[in-house]
Amino acid sequence: MTSLAQPQTRPESAVVPAKPLLIYVNVPFCNSKCHFCDWVAEVPVRDLRLTDVSPGRSRYLAAMREQIAAQAPALRLSGYRPEVMYWGGGTASILTPAEIEPIRAALLENFDLDQIAEATIEGSPESLDPDKLTALRSRLGFNRISIGVQSFDGARLRMIGRSHSVDQARAAVRAAHEAGFDNINIDLIVGFPGQSMAEVEDTARQAVQLPVNHFSVYPYRSSPGTVLRKQVMRGPGRVDLDEQLQAYARTAEILQDAGHPEYAMSYFGTPRCQSDEAYYQLKMDWIGFGSGANSLINRRFLTNKRGDLHRYNANPTAFDMEVSAASPALTLHFLSQALTTAEGVDARLFAQRTGMSLREACKHPDALAYLRNMRKHGDVIIDGTGIRLRREDISKTYIALNWIQGPQPEQ
Question: With a threshold of 0.90, does the pTM exceed it?
Answer without folding.
Answer: yes
